[in-house]
Prior knowledge:
The chain is mainly beta. 9% of the residues lie in helices and 40% in strands.
Amino acid sequence: MSKSFLRSVRHAGLISALVMAPCLAINAGLVSAETITAQLVKAPNVPTPITRTQPATVVVNLEASEWVGPISDDNNYEFWGINGMVPGPMIRVMVGDTVEVHLKNKSSSKQSHNLDFQKASGGAALVNAEPGKEAQITFKATNQGLFVYQSSTAAPANIQHLLSGMYGLILVEPAGGLKPVEKEFYVMQSEFYMKDGKKNDTLVFSNQKVTDADASYIVHNGHMTALVKVPLRSKVGETDRWFFGNAGVNFDSSWHVIGEMLDRVWPGGNVAKAPTESIQSTLVPPGEATIGEFKGEMPGTFVSVDHSIFRTEKGALGLLKIDGPTNPALFKGL
């Protein structure tokens, strides 16, 4: 299949989105009184919680690029990502906000890149930028919750965009924000499919392995040991809130923190509904996200995993170190 055909299909999809969604137009009817530049930080860090109660215009500055970097201690991969990160930065807005996305595409890119925010907007919200160009859209954040934003290409013709790092999470909070907690973490499970290679090779994307659902790596936050070499940190008595996404594309994630119960879970990231309580593992399908939280009651090193446990060998795990005093009333060795 030719590159010109794929580009034509992507453009056709973009034009269709523009025709179907007048919410994309930048006009006075969408603009809110206050204008804020979105805080964008690298996972597992999370933007500052929202405390305002009135909608604003939130400017989100993103840049697509392509680079070679480590996927494990043994191999590299050519990532396609946002702001030099995989996953892309988490975006935090409030329901009713006007979100103004500026997507640049580095001149060194070989591909055009796009991102789709339709889950947060309630309609088509696709922005596409050619190499060396910048594109913009504006949409209203109409749906409360935690959503995956991602590349929207002519799948499966060019699924490589999504499977090389073009995704992240966008949180649309209720007015006044979520209930405060001591710690918040951003973790995203991602699948990578490469042709086999030797140690120290830069591995090459394999569409056949995608078709066969034969993942080379299934990682948390873009690297096989990202959350092992640099564990998450908390303290006894602190409530930890996790924003957990699954970029997909083939496998559900049965997310679980070994040694802890999830005190509260918002399935599908739906903060408009009351959470479920006392959950051991929670299912996160491809292209979906969830919010879970618990209070650490004992010190130790806890392991966050996809409980399809063989995937830990491919990188689907991370560590949480909780510091503080022990509580023998909870449990003790005999």
